[in-house]
Structures are given as structure tokens and as C-alpha cells.
Amino acid sequence: MFFLKLLCTMNLFTLWITTTFCVIVTAQLQENPYTRAIRMNKLWQNVHGYVQVRPGAHMFYWFFYANGTKVDANRKPVIIWIQGGPGFAASGIGNFAELGPFNMDMQPRNHTWVKGRNVLFLDHPVGTGFSYVTNSSLYVKTDREMAMDLARAIKVFFRRYKEFRKTPTYLFSQSYGGKLCPRLAYYLHTAIENKSLKLNFKGIGIGGGWVDPKESILVLPKFLYLSGMIDRNIYLSSSRVAKKLARCIEKEEYIQADIFDDILFSTLNKHEELNFNNVYAPSPYKALEELENKMNLYIKQTLPAVNVTRKWSYLCLNAYNNLQLSFLVPSVSFLEALLNKTKLKIAIYNGNLDVVTPLGGASNWVHKLKWHGAAEFATAERHRIRGNRNGYYKEMNQLSFWWVFGAGHWVPEENPEAMEHILDYVMAEDVVKSLK
């Protein structure tokens, strides 16, 4: 009898739990997007605002505290996320599509960088996302101008939030942001040495980096051919164009190189639209268009500093077009300077399904870097990335290179397990200290 009563009690309790859970889930599903956006903003503590990097040029920042709370946040590492494009908006793409606390449906993300880490998103170059310029002449036209704007924004941010000046800080970047990252890192390092910036700057991460466009372009036709995405005729014709383009880059003839770049990609797209983010995945742009609508209709309303009449776009074409002649300029020299003149930890990672920056091209330029550890790095053994068939990495001194399986251009979203290993590897020392 006692057993039956206990069983009935347990069943009633189970029924209550199940019913309560269903009510909560149903309520969340029925929640309108605006209410969900407000709830999201309250669930995870964050701050946002603007930095005037030049007269009339205003850069938007959005900072998410580690674990969703300000409590002891300055004891956790800070990651500054540098989006690609140029002109893709970090406030939406990096934040909701890749690594922030919530996904594009404004639901909690299973794998987020802000568990145990603070993340700063910057909409750059100015004009991108929620950033804006008061005059079209204020768009940047070179990587130098873009990096200078970012360096100014970072300086002001750490003046405003002084509690993070001693916190270990890292730059992590993607695509064109990966090309910009070594230059920006060099500027920050120089400012710290000159004592014009107080920052505990520890390292950088470059994912799918457009660091050496020539190497990426040379392997692209063969990568697509071996993947079955183009036929032999297109492979042969695109290979010829790629070689001409590479020669123009070597000679620094960037106007002519830009012409060949257009020819190359129109040749590769002759028969079907390729997804340059991931060779086998569907295009992400429909999802980004949906994100654009949500950013304008709901997210923007929860950010008091943002002018509600200002339209958010996932890509700022004005910013992109103004940087056209900088697009094929490499940044290898800045990366070599970091390796030879600093102790910054440098992690370079690439997805094996990436089309924009094929893994083979990344491996080529990494192994051609001129630095004091180059010979040892070339012969270093590879190790498995943590998890089941996630790829490999090799390391020597401060440099590591990661072959990430099952991911295209957006490694944080497409293989978050491997990405966690990369983050843990780069920040291992600081994570241990934060736990003490």
C-alpha cells in the first residue's frame, strides 16, 4: 500500500513538473519577438554605446559580461571580436550568428564564448551595423585607417571601463578581420609600449584569415575542382586567371588585380551559385536577411543609445566599396613583426570546408612566415584537436596552426567544440588564474 501511495505521489509530481515545463516552453514559443528581445537583454548583463573615433565617425560597441553578470567579470579574460567583410556587422553576425550568448532566434546558445569570458563586439569599419558617419567622405579607404579607428575605439573603451585594464585581453578575428588583426595588434602593442594605452594584451586568434590573398586565390580553383563543385574546363580556365591575379598582387598592381579578381569569381560562378562560406552547405544569406529584420524590428528597440531611425544592415556596401583597392593587399609583414618582436600568443585556425580562404592556402602562407621559429615549426608534429574527429593542430613557441574539420568560414558556429579547444589553448594560463 505504501509503495502504491509513493508511486501515485511520484506520478503526480512528475505530472506537475512536466505540465510546468510545457507551460514555460509554450509561453516562450508564444512570446512575441520584441518581448523575447527585452527578456534576452535582461538575462545577460551587457553595456553598449558609441565612441567618436574621428569627428563625424562614430563606432558602436556592445560588451557582454562573462557568465551574464558583472560580478568578478574583470577576473575573466576579455575577447575583442573583429568581424570580416569588410563591412559585416559584428553586433549581429558575430553576436547572434556565431558566438554570442543568444542565437538568431534570440534563444540561449549552447556553445557561447561568453561562458567564462567577456566579449566586446565592435561594428567596424564606421558605417557598418549600428556605427555611422555623418558624411560619406568619412568612410575609411585603407586597412591603416580602419585599424587606427579600431585602436582609438579600444583605447576609449578601456578608459571608460577601467576595471578591465589589467584583465588579460585578446583579439579574435575572422576573414577580412583576420587580415586586419595583425596590423591592429601591432598598433595596440606599440601604444602599450609607448604608454599611451593601458591594456593587458596577451594574444590574437585568426580564423579563416584573408592574411595572404595570393595564397588563398592560387589554391581555390583546385579546391573547388577536387570538391566536385566545378568541372575540369572551369578548373583550367579559373587556374589561369588565378595565376595572373597572383602575379598582379606580387607586383602590387592592385587595380589590375581587382579586375582579375572579378573575372575569377564570375568564372567560378558560371554554372551555379557557390556558397563561399562552406563548400557543401546552403548559403547563409537568407538567414542573415531574417536577422537584419529582427535587428531593425526588435533588437534595436532594446538599445537606448541607438537611433531607432538608423537602419541596421548585415553588410554595409558603402564601407565595402570604399575599401575595394585594399582588398587584395596582404598583411603578412605585420604578422611576422608580431612573431619576431612580441611575446603575443598567436593562433591561426581554418575550416577544411572554407571556400573564401581554403585550408590549403592558409597552411601555405603560415608555413612561409619568416620568423625565428620557422624551421622548428615546419617540422613540428601535429596533435589531435579535442573531441571526435575535430582536426589537428601544431605549435611552436607562441604560434599554433589549427586544421578544423567539419567547418567552413565560420568556425565558431560550425565546429564550436573545436573552437572551444582553441580558446582554452590560447587562454589556458589566464583561465587557471581566474579560478584562483
Automatic annotation (TrEMBL):
GO function terms (MF aspect): serine-type carboxypeptidase activity
GO BP: any one term: proteolysis
Keywords of this entry: Carboxypeptidase, Glycoprotein, Hydrolase, Protease, Signal
InterPro entries: AB_hydrolase_fold, Peptidase_S10
Segment forming the signal sequence: 1-22
Record flagged with keyword Signal: yes
PANTHER family tied to this protein: RETINOID-INDUCIBLE SERINE CARBOXYPEPTIDASE, SERINE PROTEASE FAMILY S10 SERINE CARBOXYPEPTIDASE
Family label: Belongs to the peptidase S10 family.
Name of the protein in question: Carboxypeptidase
Species of origin: Heliothis virescens
